[in-house]
Amino acid sequence: MDIKSDVRVLDLLALGTVKNVYLAKWKEHTVVLSNLTDARLQPDFQHNLHMHQLLGHADYTVQYMGSCENTLVAEYFKLGSAAGLQTLLNTKLLGYNTLFRRFSLCLSYVTILEYLHSHNRVMCDSNTLLKTLSQYLVHPDLTLRVNDLDALPYATHNEMAACGSPPLLGDLLAPEQHGNMPNESLCSTACDIWKIPDVCLWFLGRTREAESFKFHLFSVHRQCKLHQPDQRPSAAEVLRNYDRIWQEWARGL
């Protein structure tokens, strides 16, 4: 792909701190083109590009199509980000507004976390529910794909990552992110686990059926909210529990 000659910008989609995002055309394909906005943020932009090349997977991430210097081209998702799902499911996707479909979004979200955690990566851009949801795009089959990978540091339980400069602000911060000094505000993949209940409960909505189903998730969600990071389950364990709970619900247990 020769981006300068083959890709034609159609419209501005979003203005961001690190990059501006445009709707574009490449041959017969509608794509998304991202340009670096500030040369001082080039390390963040290049980290995003590197993560797409390193972690790109058709089932979990948006499809990376090409890059040139500080420009990146990726596939376009016409359904937008997960932040718009409540509106979509109550309007143009009303026929898919079922508990099964909504809980499938929880499964898709945790499956992506499991994939990222298997590579020892933690999602730093997740201080608020809206910010977290905006990191994921909605695939035509109504599963999710992670999009923004510019804040995805390497982290393990022994080698934790700093997600921004403390004190951090946001309603979705894990307890270990509330320190006032850099060495007091470090994350492992357990930070992502803390946020799973908030994201899943939002996906489920507030119908009577959803409220009844949420009761069955209480135990696993309580484990995700344990204050000691090493006591929280892994994403794989959450996924296994989610699968078990759904099977029991479907059988009327």
From TrEMBL:
Q: Does the keyword Transmembrane apply?
A: yes
Q: Please name the GO terms of the biological process aspect recorded for this protein, alphabetically.
A: protein O-linked glycosylation
InterPro entries noted in UniProt:
Kinase-like_dom_sf, POMK
From what superkingdom does this record's organism come?
Eukaryota
Coiled-coil-forming residues are: none
GO cellular component term, pick one: endoplasmic reticulum membrane
Q: How does it sit in the membrane?
A: Single-pass membrane protein
- Keywords, ordered alphabetically: ATP-binding, Kinase, Membrane, Nucleotide-binding, Transferase, Transmembrane, Transmembrane helix
Task: Report the locations given in the UniProt record.
Answer: Endomembrane system
Q: Which GO terms describe its molecular function?
A: ATP binding; carbohydrate kinase activity; phosphotransferase activity, alcohol group as acceptor
- UniProt-recorded name of the protein: Protein kinase domain-containing protein
Source organism of this protein record: Amblyomma americanum
